[in-house]
DNA sequence: TATGAATGAGAATTCATTCAT
DNA sequence: GATGAATGAATTCTCATTCAT
């Protein structure tokens, strides 16, 4: 399910033309399947409510492999967080001011409603793990600073604190939306498309993050 | 055994008539202590990560009383949710449009940062319990409709769907802020006062919920 | 099974009659039952091969109580070791030289063959737990020094090192006997009585620990 | 493919004539490496506390090879026990009475303190495996009978039972010493040399096993 | 009403072993 | 012959809940 079988088959037939669809033992693929499944469950159910068995079942692999590849449930969570951070940085880093609404909307609505929820939502699932909290906080900081500087502001301006606060409110809004979409079927928000979100998000960012 | 709690309470107040403040065995007091403690822990740690023992300890009462008064952990959560809903309705119901930012700011910052977090954050802690989810969804719906109608809009207008969506985004922002403040020490957002929040929230609501 | 119900009943009626010590659902008794069962299994099977379920079943109580009363399997082991150390100190502390063989024999054969094996055997079951290892080593040291000094020797004599070594060999012999009796049905050693052991042990101690 | 290991070895030594020490794929070498590593870990940690991965890592080979060569962890243990029994028989079989202390001392101290512990200690690590227990008991029996007969005694003498008991006590002492040396750093016993042990062991055997 | 004891279900994790390459 | 992937059975521990005072 998680693993796309068709793409896999294709790749496979390229590699071992005579023996298609027979790749059962692939460490990296297993790892990724676990990572995807974990992200889904962690964001929709929260860290504590998610069992490793849930994740393994959803990934279609044996539970013990979670410990093999990620040492522990916490390790898996940290890996999810790291991946989410990377993804966020890639999507939002260096986006010009006018593109921010689109970027946020894409981030929120990127992968459908509940199928593969936005990385944003993951940033609020606390695990009680210190290391994970640090990662989370780091990503949040980075993201809000990116937003703050997108308007062309510098960190040493007199009202930089205010700007940062407003950027964090934008971030909070984005996360709030992602959460309401992934955990609660609150209509119409839950079923909006990326397009639907751009206009209100533009109003929001324009109001909170006025360019120079 | 004793089925009627009120009758019992009456008897009790008779017994301790001389010292009405100091009642060691006071059902309603115990109930309230549990409710407060539960709200704190549920919002800061999430439903699943909170143990009934945590709550009981924080409330300073015996664990078994949770089951006595609320039948189960889920029952306690539902009770918290109900109380949060009531509180929200009281705070945000019928607020005139211009007062919305203040109302939201107060709601968010009402009780300090982490000491007694806003009810808003509770609205996203899912418990996996169907009844609780219904309550939650109900409260969220009500709140967003209140916001939508605050601008003087009616539910049967042609663009009512859009208005509702925008109201839900405002709500999402409010919840996002509450969450970032209660679960993560993201500065400066985490330490802002009610006053600090009003201006940006005004900008936000003005942009998203234009009055007629 | 382990806990003698009749003895318990008797004690109980005694206790509740005049003694202010009341035992309701009896935590201390449960604790002791666990301690006894644990000592049996740890000595006969070793730490790692013993499951907490084995112990709980043998004690006739629920598994979770092990964690309740001793925090962990390791905690229970440490408690056993501590109790064994106390018991050893009580039995062997300050025993005059001529009584040593009897003391050792009693210690070894004290409680039958396998029913409640000697504390001695426990002193060799390593758990991999650092704290437990320290306790164990402390008890072993104490016991060998007791033996060394029983012959009237002082720690500052020129050959004190030799004396201590010989005392440790006596101790090793005692432990070896206890082990061979508790873990392996090596006949005739496994079924000897306390009396049977005294004569050979006297020869052994006389040969290794010559009095001044 | 290659069935005959000796043929293989021959071929091998031909092939790697210039570097006879370094053979990567050598069944008997791998087998022996596993056997040595297993003996070390089993004696120092006990059967249950030793993982097959520990052993394989220490031997520098893949884990699966344990099952390949010894069918199971228990099989490996039995093999160790068998090897230890052979070794013991070789060392102690037919030793004249006066040489017994030396033989025991050598056995105990043979291979340093912890590096390659005495086979003696292995004789007490129970595995819960019936076959292994039988082997163990057989070895212990054989050894004690050897000791008993070393004094020139016959099995049909009137006090043969007593003699056997005393021989078992000597054996118990030897095992006790080996254990205290391999598992616990009890000084000075743990660091004594073979020479240091001979004198006390002579006193011990003389006292317990008087020759005819 | 309140409390500590007790319980059973379920959680994460470890580990010997087997499979496929 | 050797290796890394995968698996299922256990094991320890936690936790909500119930029981007995």
Structure in words:
- 4 copies of one chain form a homotetramer.
- Chain A has a domain at 78-208: Tetracycline Repressor, domain 2.
- Chain A is 66% helix and 0% strand.
- The first copy, chain A, is mainly alpha-helical and 212 residues long.
- Residues 1-23 of chain A have low confidence and may be disordered.
- Chain A has helices spanning 5-15, 27-45, 52-59, 64-70, 73-92, 100-109, 119-122, 130-150, 160-183, 194-208.
- Chain A is built from 10 helices and no strands.
- The first copy, chain A, is globular, with a radius of gyration of 19 Å.
- The structure holds a DNA duplex (21 and 21 nucleotides).
How is the topology of this model organized?
The structure is a homotetramer of 212-residue chains.
Chain A: H1 5-15, H2 27-45, H3 52-59, H4 64-70, H5 73-92, H6 100-109, H7 119-122, H8 130-150, H9 160-183, H10 194-208
The structure holds a DNA duplex (21 and 21 nucleotides).
